[in-house]
Amino acid sequence: MLVAKRVFDFWALFACCALIGVSIYNAAKGMKVQIRPIAGFEAIDEAVGRAAEMGKPVHFTPGFGGLVAPTFAGLEVLGYITGLAAKYDVRLIVTVSQPETYAVTEQVVRQAYLTAGKPEAFKPEDCRFISSDQWAYASGVIGILLRDKVASNIMIGQFAAESLILAEAGNTIGAIQIAGTTNAYQIPFFVVACDYVILGDEMFAAGAHFAKNKVHLGSLRGEDLIKALCLLLVIVGALLVCGGSDTLLKIMAL
Amino acid sequence: MRISTDIGAWVGALSALAIYSVLYKENPVYRLVENIFVGASAGIAVVVGVQTFQSTAWVPMAKGNTWLVVPMVLGVLLYARYTPSVSYLNRIPLSFLLGTSAGVAMRGAIESQIVGQLSATMINLNSFDALVIFLGTVTSLAYFFLTYRFSGRAAVVSMWGRYFMMAAFGAAFGNTVMGRVSAAIGRFQFIFLKWLGM
Amino acid sequence: MFIRKMLPTIIAFVCGTTVTVAYFFAIPSVQSLAQNIMQWRSVVAVFALGLGAVNIIMVHTKNLKRDGLKNIYSLALLAMFCITILVGLGLGQSSKGYRFIFDYINVPTGSAIFSLLAFYIGTAAYRAFRVKNAEAAILLITGCVVMLGRVPLGARILPVAPRLTDWIMTVLNVGGQRGVMVAGAIGFIAVSLRIIAGLERRVYGVE
Amino acid sequence: MDIFERLQNLDKRVFYLMMALAIAIPTIRPIGLPITVTTAVQKTYDFVKSLPDGSKVLIGFDYEPGDEIDLNPQAIALFHVFGPKKIKVVAISSFPAGPMFAEECMMVLAQYGYKYGVDYVNLGHYAGGESTLAAFATKPTSIFSKDWLKNDIASLPLMKEITSMKDFSMAMTLNDGPTGGTGTHEWVRQSVMAHGTPLIMGCTGVLAASNMTYVQSGQCKGILAGLAAAAEFEKLIGKKGTGTVGMDAQSMAHVLIVAFVLLGNVAMIVSRQRAKTAGGGASR
């Protein structure tokens, strides 16, 4: 009944989900999981604190993406940043490009202010939909960065070619910049232009890092187990190929 | 030099110059062009959106696909957020959007990004090049262990992982320059050749 | 209570699982349901665009109320936004007015913004490509070699650059890219799974 | 601040100005930096040159605004080879903007005394990608009844000579990728595999590596990749066009960036050395 050529993919996904599920269960039962420090996340407190000292706003954008996984990771961090902004009374400006992402982002910010006990601090005009056009979005964001002279610019989510435009504009005004994306073609531009870069997969660890949330810590342990399994698979596969057997490759192509 | 009399050439060239002025300093001219551009592009998005709505929802529903009432109701519920007493209803369409998006993300990730990439790495390690690809993949993947910390000798693995990633980032950076410069050449040709007629 | 907490969780779970199962299993009823869900999704997304439009109008009318017509920027944005919609919906997308906005304002201004990258990419490289440590040195070397290897003048300056560029792009570059991609995809799966399983309900507003 | 420290922190605007000059100067007055012809381009040129005089060629303008910088120069350079040989050209496009680019490029043909409708035709845009191209390949009139200028196809003498893909001695696609239009792979299937019409392709720089496989496998007779290939082709035909100009600007821009990077590093190393010796002096 499985669709041809997707048999292995299905079982691989099944195994991934099972590993993550079991790890979350174990963590909830009290298994200790330590997370290694991620400099980009540690810098977020400093970035918001600096804005508070300077009396200037913080800017956050989840990027150009629709509702894709990196955007989810960005929104998770946004919830935390909003909490900090509410605590320190810092103005937080959020810019969004895609309508469906906007619908969710606005809700996340609204809810985070509510949770922080300051629902009145939420201002719709500071959570802005710019345009779904890539370059209009870029020009709108650099306009905001340059005019509002933000103290800290945080960009975590899905980014395309506009990444460097945003990062250079942030650099021009001397903002502390923290950026993260999984797109390997855009990470280089964040690496050269930002102060802190959250590399690829690290961005999915936000919940575990900030809230030390058991679900997230467990999920992270599950991800690590999957990575270990992938490494094992690659090594065994390569050794088999060296020995002249492509059995594993054939199984994976099923 | 023969300056163009075509209004399109004038609008295009002047807007490009206004945009380039931001390289010197943020200024009123840039700000005006930016706002016109953002307004126009958001307007275009709305026009396209209405057209999509007509062709994917309104017309099929008029032709008898009554099920399409469901997404329309969901869509309307998004606006519940503006009325505090019923704002929680807004969670229903959001959970619908997020649930489907998560499903799509999950199935795409496993196939092309994990299984495809892993099988491409299972190569015969009989050449220097093959070894470089293999070691690069293994060490950079190992860098991403987030709940284990490599210490002592094992730390070398994640260090090499970072080195390989930096090499890849440098390469991607250098390789992108050409496309970006091409874009600028296009604008410059427009300004000097089409508009100023040089 | 049910509508506030349970229902959103159930919807996310059912939709996410249906879409995934339909991809792997050839069950006609599930597949047609998944197809419907995806079609519905695009309809709901159009309504989300309306939220965006509301936000644009709200932000800029507020600016105008505060500053009056002195704020020509918000005025220009709102005017352009409304004109484009009126022309596009009233006269149609093949009308002269709409083509003017699209071909003469939208496309060239977008290209101009894109071409800013030609300038930014240089200053970013100048600032960051410094041999401060091993990692920065690697970034600098591969970056510069590829830049030289791509153009005839660069090949004159460093004759080995084109061949080295080919090697970097087809061999050295591959491993690092793959590591980022595979690890990222594992993260995709984890976060998607948490959303489908209702462990990430904060995103849609359930605490 | 001494000069070396200053060189490490130059005002960005100095670089912006230099970059603008590096692109503007070659645009206004081409420099003609030396260009080396690669084997891929040479082979493509040889193949096009070997087409019989007066034969017919089909060209797909399969790209969108933004990529014309790479692809227009390729088409124009190719037309300069066709011109003296009176090779007849039929243009089609899988993107709405394609016919506009076709018209722009085909203006070159007028220099060689070409007449519209007799020696060249711009059929316009077709929707539907590969399946439409397949239908066109078996019966062109099933897809186009009027050309882009709204002439009846029946009134165009050139179109009377064409009944299927087999009537073309060569097909070419100028391509910026498979999203939205007809990709290179689809062209290989519909021209080479279905009708045995030889194919060459022009593509943007980023697609070079993936499309090179068709040339290596022999399915495709030649490839022009990116602006660089256009410049090389222009060298072969002895005409300095926008490809050469573009490559001049590319060369200048790339070398300028590398020069600035080196400058920053040299300045950093020198001032570090100085600080070291100065520090050493103080401790003594």
Summarize the structure.
Chain A has 254 residues and is of the alpha/beta class. Chain A has helices at 7-28, 39-54, 69-88, 99-115, 134-148, 163-172, 187-193, 206-211, 214-242, 247-252, and strands at 58-63, 92-96, 127-129, 152-158, 176-181, 196-199. The mean pLDDT of chain A is 93.
Derived from helix and strand composition plus strand pairing, the structural class of chain B reads mainly alpha
Let me know the largest β-sheet of chain C. none
The helix content of chain C, as a percent range, equals over 70%
For the largest beta-sheet of chain B, the strand count, sense and barrel status come to: none
Overall radius of gyration of chain C: 26 Å
Q: Pairing-aware structural class of the strands and helices of chain C?
A: mainly alpha
Tally the helices of chain B: what do you get? 6
Summarize model confidence as the mean pLDDT of chain B.
91
User: What is the H-and-E element order of chain B?
Assistant: HHHHHH
Percent strand of chain B equals under 5%
User: Quaternary arrangement of the chains shown?
Assistant: heterotetramer
Query: What distance lies between the first and last C-alpha atoms of chain B, to the nearest angstrom?
Result: 5 Å
Characterize the overall form of chain B: flat
Number of strands of chain B: 0
Q: Which stretches of chain B of 5+ consecutive residues score pLDDT under 50? A: none
End-to-end C-alpha gap of chain C: 12 Å
Shape of chain C: extended
Counted by DSSP, the helix tally of chain C is: 7
State the total count of DSSP E strands of chain C.
Answer: 0
Strand-and-helix sequence of chain C, N→C? HHHHHHH
